Amino acid sequence: MTTASLREMAHALGLDRLTDAHLAQFEHTLEIVAQHVRRLPRDLPPAQEMALIFRAKGPA
Amino acid sequence: MMSELGFLGIAEASDLLRAKKLSPVELTKALLERIDRLDKNYNAFIAVTPEAALAAARQAEAEIAAGRWRGPFHGIPYALKDIIDVAGLPTTAHSKLLQGNVATEDAPVGARLKAAGGVLLGKLSTHEFAIGGPSFDLPWPPARNPWNRDYFAGGSSSGSGAGLAAGLFPAALGTDTGGSVRNPASQCGITGMKATYGRVSRRGLLPLAFSLDHVGPMTRDVRDNALMLQVIAGHDPGDPASADEPVPDYTASLGDGAKGLRVGVIRQFYAKDIAAHPEMAAAVEAAVRCFAEAGAEIRELNLPPLQDFSACGQVIMLAEAYAVHERWLKERPEDYGARGRERLLAGAALRAADYIQAVRWRLQLRDAAAAAFRDIDLALTVSSHDPACRIDDDAALAATYSRQARMAFNITGQPALVIPAGFAASGMPLSVQLVGRPFTEAVLYRAAAAYEAATGWSKRHPAGLAG
Fold first, then answer.
1. ipTM, two decimals
2. Global pTM?
3. For residue range B322-367, what is the model confidence (pLDDT) as tens digits?
4. CA–CA separation, B289 and B442 (whole Å)
5. How close does chain A come to B132, measured CA to CA in Å?
6. Residue span of the structural domain in which B41 resides
7. Catalytic site residue B330?
């Protein structure tokens, strides 16, 4: 990615204060996180629940 | 006497304190003197609190003298990773962003140690926000490994590991989101427990990733670790993830040996998924033989690939961490160290769907592990795939994030204990990881105590520091 396209992406994410050096770091870390994302399964059963639990809070 | 107290453990010190053969004040002064003399080499501490420590030691001394002994932690010096709140002290997370961030309340884990009569010596180095390090561009230098100060101490609870190995204190707390108690335990040759998720309160610590964060005891040997977990384990209604499960006596079965234990070996993690350094693999295989000779029943254990656990864990951790850090990364990115900023920016580009797929996948991985562990008492595998690397070897440091088998058990929430398992030719420690079913920490301590008694690795200390 060019610095300009990285800056545009960062701007869209609200990361407006990143310097060119920070953007280079951003590019590097995007490559790493993309490797993890590619490994995520995309064929989980529709009813597969999340490992997060919401509990409504009852009266104290 | 002063120079002999550096490597006194909790159990041994407690016996002496209770018998009034040693004073908490004498012990505390001896450790403060060691910290003053030695810590410039290891940077374990961010802040030492000598006046408060001596006041707590004098109180413990008076109570023990009056026959009001509170238990094995009474009068024992300890230190806390500096992401854990102590009322009146800054919680910096080793970051410029939080300099002057004074806590108003004690975290429950610290409050429990205080109530047990412990003597807080100060706050310890960490990787910035428990994720980015080692770093040389922060307000405090990174901790260094007492076995060789040119080597990495592990992280993120690096000050905890370094200070224990250097004989600066007998007990510390670390935190573990993807292995941050167990990594410094591996690299510094000490003992670190990540108990079951929910076993120890997370309230009052600066979060890295809520659903993966654990607080864990770090000590030099197994008995001390069990004694410290005994103090900090228990239900906290103020922590939504806290488990309301009974707390057993963690020292009750330490002398029961390994005979009859069913031990799975997760060989795929270090022989197939990611090949470990030969010396590390050999150390784990030697531990397997040790358990077999002690009468344990050994069997192979297979889990989903290590890379699956790693990918799932990294996506969850980076997404949750970004949510915590988003505002600071937008407003003050220049105030992070380079390593912390790079790691935390990773979460910015993750999509909600990616995070949710990872969180859904997590249950499948947890269930696969639960099925595999159904017929065994514990499993053995590597913690780190390599002995410690040099602290200035950027490529080797980057590799430590993937060449480890710890995140798997943050994903499943199972208890995992790392203990010393010998030394590499470089002189740096080797280690083995013991993993149990949820809430079976006592089984891990029993097995680890048997291994420790058979090998004696935890009795070794860095040259020039013993005494």
1. 0.95
2. 0.98
3. 999 999 999 999 999 999 999 999 999 999 999 999 999 999 999 9
4. 22
5. 13
6. 2-459
7. no
